[in-house]
Design goal:
This protein is mostly helical. It contains 14 helices and two strands; from the N terminus they run αββααααααααααααα. It has a single domain, classed as ABC transporter involved in vitamin B12 uptake, BtuC, CATH 1.10.3470.10.
């Protein structure tokens, strides 16, 4: 079917909106990178870094990695949320639907209790826990004998999430109420204060690999909104492609979650905002979701750094912001269930 003139105009507008988002994100990243509380509150000049070795060290070892992870975490979580909602054909699906967030929380809590003070062990344990959530969900889904693949995987993910939630409660009871329990709760609220130059490169590589893999699939993602019979007739190996797509998203989500903790609501709300702005076509909704997610997490973290002298979990800010966006979208009937 040939494109209509209206379709071509709409595609040009969407591309223009994506380019505008890219420019806004670049400007926000530059502002986040060159603003902070040291050596003074506000804008940091290059001369400040050249004249103050402490300021230069803080810039490269703390602020630069933090800005990069803030960008990537929002992008990966939003992309993962869009993938989950598309694959499961469920507007309420998110990265935690397959047990990834809960698995990462189990890994982090275990490391905090049994290996206190080791950030590397906590990060590795959280990454492994997130991966285990996906593996267990796949294993349980394969054992189920009723329903389609999507229903079985969804039920398996809910089961794994419930099990991990119960196990996490047990770990909290075992934790030291003065230090360890506070560390677990703070990690679960999501914060970038753990991000340093040590160990953040592997997370960046895994997050970029995840985004690239999901991006390569965006041309096929629209097929998942069709019935299985229609998709199969078009030559889509649904089970394999769904598994690969979710696996690619989970790798990135586990990586960023292992470093930042659980950033709430971004993976659930941002994909809806992207569809409102760019439509349901994943060719535009996916890059739009990636850019919007990165913009929200980076802006939230930058505002927290500048407005508060103490460390506030960025998950609080993103949750409040995303809930406001969700309420506005529902009240204006942009989102319907």
């Amino acid at each position: 079917m040939p494109f209509k003139a209206e379709d071509l105009i709409g595609m040009k507008k969407k591309r223009g909106a994506l380019c505008l988002l890219v420019l806004i994100l670049i400007g926000t990243a530059a502002a986040a990178l060159w603003s902070g509380r040291y050596p003074k509150l506000g804008w940091t000049r290059w001369r400040d870094l050249a004249d103050d070795p402490i300021a230069a060290n803080l810039f490269w070892r703390l602020r630069f990695p933090r800005v990069v992870i803030a960008l990537l975490s929002g992008a990966v979580l939003s992309a993962g949320g869009l993938v989950c909602q598309t694959v499961f054909n469920n507007p309420l699906a998110g990265p935690d639907i397959v047990g990834v967030s809960q698995g990462a929380a189990i890994g982090a809590a275990t490391a905090i209790i049994f290996f206190p003070g080791s950030a590397a062990v906590r990060q590795l344990a959280a990454f492994i826990g997130g991966g285990m959530g996906l593996i267990l969900s796949l294993a349980i889904a394969r054992r189920l004998r009723y329903g389609g693949w999507t229903l079985r995987f969804l039920l398996a993910g809910i089961t794994v999430s419930a099990f991990f939630t119960g196990a996490l409660t047990v770990l909290k009871l075992m934790a030291d109420g003065r230090n360890q329990l506070h560390a677990i709760e703070f990690w679960m609220m999501g914060a970038y204060c753990y991000v340093t130059a040590n160990g953040f490169i592997p997370v960046v590589l895994l997050a970029l690999a995840s985004l690239i893999s999901v991006g390569l699939f965006r041309w096929r993602t629209n097929l998942f909104s069709l019935p299985d019979e229609s998709s199969s007739s078009l030559g889509a190996a649904l089970a394999l492609e769904r598994t690969l797509l979710i696996g690619a998203a989970v790798v990135g989500i586990s990586a960023v979650t292992s470093l930042s903790g659980i950033i709430g609501w971004v993976g659930l709300i941002v994909p809806h905002l992207a569809r409102i702005l760019f439509g349901a076509d994943s060719r535009f909704a996916l890059p739009g979701s990636i850019l919007l997610g990165a913009l929200i997490t980076l802006s939230s973290d930058t505002a927290i750094r500048l407005l508060s002298p103490r460390e506030i979990p960025v998950g609080i800010m993103t949750s409040l912001l995303c809930v406001l966006i969700f309420c506005a979208a529902v009240l204006t009937r942009k989102i319907r269930f």
